[in-house]
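Tip: read the tokens left to right.
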């Protein structure tokens, strides 16, 4: 690596920075954040900035010559220095946060990344650290969820150059299969919800009748997602879990409740901004506390399961059910039929085209 001594410059806005070349490529630093110092020339009065920038130049030169890590934030390229395990994890998180994932998924990655580096406490990442984090979750389902997120980060860190994978020999746990218990008295439950809250009632109707997922697909619906006659909902792939475009019929008992608004307005909030992510979750929790009809294991998603069973009863077609549910695999759709008292089905049992 060939490094020239940094020079001090001033831009057209009177901000001071240092520049230097590494292997004939030019780099700029306006402060010491990327080299682990708090030196910030532009926080000083104009007459002092040049002198402080000279200090920054000396710090940068010493840091890089001693093997310090310097990253190109735009491309995530390692400019110089050897990354520590913590550096690789930070880089992996940065890469994943740039991806087209849901806000909730990115928040989870942030949270588990933060917990893991606290356990590491600056040490080299090993299986003991990972096990310590995973074993803090007693539920097998939670354990597996955390493991998937940590695996995403570690695999990306390996892609970036991490030389070992401490998760390689840590297996997921077998979680007991759970299913949102379907309703046998759907009309009665819906009538009880109708008397409690109109928005929750409409959400439950659409979860049952349109087979949409409540917390994102329904909550984020705008009038522009509907056809002109309100007879269909058109969701693009980035708006639903399967990643596929979906066109969903709207039953008349739902259509009769709708009064079309402006195209970019959310159907629940009445403006361009949807209601908060936990809106229906909170409403359901409050309704559950006062309901006289709900049974153990029945959730907001039970309406979707109940609707799936109804479709299969009416059509006898697992393919139609798969398309209606927006599933990427028939095997996923089959899990929804556990509510029917029929023999266990596998994909090989189904009619072939």
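Filled-in amino acids:
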């Amino acid at each position: 690596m060939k490094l020239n001594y940094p020079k001090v410059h001033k831009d057209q806005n009177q901000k001071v920075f240092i520049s230097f070349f590494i292997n004939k490529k030019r780099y700029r630093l306006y402060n010491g954040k990327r080299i682990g110092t708090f030196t910030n020339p532009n926080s000083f009065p104009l007459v002092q900035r040049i002198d402080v920038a000279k200090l920054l130049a000396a710090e940068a030169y010493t840091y890089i010559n001693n093997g310090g890590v310097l990253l190109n934030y735009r491309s995530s390229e390692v400019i110089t220095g050897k990354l520590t395990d913590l550096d690789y994890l930070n880089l992996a998180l940065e890469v994943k946060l740039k991806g087209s994932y849901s806000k909730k998924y990115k928040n989870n990655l942030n949270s588990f990344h933060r917990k893991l580096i606290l356990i590491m406490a600056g040490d080299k990442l090993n299986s003991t650290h990972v096990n310590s984090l995973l074993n803090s979750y007693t539920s097998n389902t939670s354990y597996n969820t955390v493991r998937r997120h940590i695996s995403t980060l570690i695999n990306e860190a390996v892609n970036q150059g991490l030389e070992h994978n401490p998760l390689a020999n840590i297996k997921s746990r077998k979680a007991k299969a759970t299913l949102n218990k379907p309703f046998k008295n759907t009309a009665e439950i819906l009538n009880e919800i109708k008397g409690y809250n109109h928005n929750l009632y409409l959400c439950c109707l659409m979860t049952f009748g349109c087979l949409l997922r409540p917390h994102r697909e329904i909550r984020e619906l705008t009038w522009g997602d509907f056809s002109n006659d309100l007879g269909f909902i058109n969701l693009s792939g980035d708006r639903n879990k399967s990643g596929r475009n979906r066109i969903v019929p709207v039953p008349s008992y739902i259509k009769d409740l709708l009064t079309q608004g402006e195209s970019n307005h959310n159907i629940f909030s009445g403006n361009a901004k949807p209601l908060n992510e936990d809106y229906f979750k909170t409403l359901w929790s409050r309704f559950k506390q006062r309901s006289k009809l709900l049974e153990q294991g029945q959730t907001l998603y039970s309406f979707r399961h109940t609707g799936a069973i109804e479709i299969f009863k009416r059509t006898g077609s697992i393919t139609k059910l798969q398309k209606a549910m927006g599933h990427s695999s028939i095997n996923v759709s089959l899990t929804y039929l556990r509510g029917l008292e029929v023999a266990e089905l596998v994909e090989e049992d189904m009619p072939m085209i």
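The two ends are 62 Å apart (CA to CA). The chain has 13 helices and seven strands.
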